[in-house]
Amino acid sequence: MRFASYITNAVVLVLSCLTSSVAGGLATEPVKTESGRVSGAGTDVRVFKGIPYAAAPAGDLRWRPPQAPPRWDGIRDAKEFGPACPQPTLGMKLPKQGEDCLTLNVWTPARKPGEKLPVIVSIHGGGYLAGWSGLPAYDGDTFARRGLVFVSMNYRLGALGFLAHPGLSKESPEHSSGNYGLQDQIAALRWIRRNIAAFGGDPARVTIFGESAGGTSVGLLLVSPLAKGLFQRAIMESPASMYLPISHRSETWYGRPPAERMGEQMADDIAALRALSADDVIKRSPAPDPTLPNGSAYQPIVDGWVVPDDPAVLFESGQAHRVAMIAGTNSDEGVAFTLILRTKTRTLADYRDYLKSRFGESAGTASELYPANSDGQVRQAVSRILTDVMCLYGTRSMVAAMSHASKKVYWYYFTRSDPVSRKLGAAGAIHGADVGYVFGDPAKSLFADTPGLAVAASAYDETDRALAHAMNAAWVQFAKTGNPNGAGLPSWPPAAPNDLQYLEYGDKIQVGRGLRDKSLQFLDEYFGRLRSERAQTVR
Q1: What are 488-500's pLDDT values in tens digits?
Q2: pLDDT score, position 287
Q3: Catalytic residue among 211, 237, 316, 333
Q4: In angstroms, rounded to a whole number, what is the distance separating the alpha carbons of residues 501 and 498?
Q5: Active-site residue, selected from the candidate residues 133, 177, 212, 519
Q6: Is the pLDDT of residue 434 over 90?
Q7: What is the pTM of this model?
Q8: DSSP output for 210-222
Q9: Inter-CA distances, 170 with 67, 159, 164, 176, Å
């Protein structure tokens, strides 16, 4: 098996450039947007691709907030996806790339404007390093056929999307830099609010959802003042690194240097950086760092504007937007992260050193909660730690915090070991395994075209298909009503502050309680101490 290929795909979630299928393929009646008319394709479901929601962030607009898209005369052909935002290839075949990448795509079953169908907006994953809204796994056809207007978007990535630099902060009216990729997502949501009615969507019923970095983005939008009122429901799937220590733009947090200092390592002169090609910017970017969440050097930070404070603090203090929410994780996420972060822990001696470096004085407690009694058990123990630390801990914490403010908070746990997970020897579901199920077709895996991990559609059985139907239907029902319960759907109780129930999506669909309580309580106390120490240091 080509683990290097899996590493690449797990980090960037990049597949070959393929177009999604749509009904028919005939020209549709043009739709009028604020920038001009667009013509898509399809009959039962009409699809419009590559619609600009912002101007190309190139030249003088590089590392600036997204600007209004250009206007055009006549009818713009919207039958092809826009280019992917610039990103490293990592040996994978990628679609066309370019900085003129701030586009979105719309699938709509509406026959005329003004139908006011609920809207669901997909934010792709990729560790903030790569990804593309045109991946086959993100095809919105199933959602549209179930009565939703489906939207997907691109946003700036890597250094081009998340570079903080004192020169950029100085030229900003908000005295801020970094988080340009998050600003892109907010700009797309504003475009949706102004234009989606023309596609038959209801701007007052918008659900945002995403997996991995897409799920983390949803969590950050929940605490961003700039996103207030732009969505009414939120779904987070395996939001990686939520509640973990985060970097600050200009201050030393959690022992990490300011993000602006990292930006200065790229170059001192902003004009010179803007004169570089996008490829050269990517080449100058540091390699992934296993000490950072997601391993990416450039990712969201506390900038005082888009993200005003530590997201964990904002959630815990009740400052998140009060919307209906679904959040969940997979049972064996850590298999991917052991490869993404290239952990070299192999022996018991390695494992003891790993626990000391990660948990310090709490290493003894960690070894009891995540035991390994032989070299052969080390990899599984590390995988379990990364499953809990990277995804489950933060998700459970957000569910608990949000349950105090809303009675429409739903927690899930995806445990189905799909054919790709089994190929990697996972006991449960790996990071990203749930995406095909959420989109209604388990065979449309994020890893379907990854060498060594490709499996035939026939490898998925009736249990997989029924599970996919149930998950997609619950997501659709939630987007329509703010509640995933409905006729023919499994009963899914909301999480309450004193009763954090969850719905397990696995070989069986069933309600559970007490999910890894001891381990998660330990992590809550450990990271809580870090936040307390950080707050005292800042004071």
Answers
A1: 999 999 999 999 9
A2: 66
A3: 333
A4: 9
A5: 212
A6: yes
A7: 0.93
A8: EETHHHHHHHHHH
A9: 19, 18, 11, 8
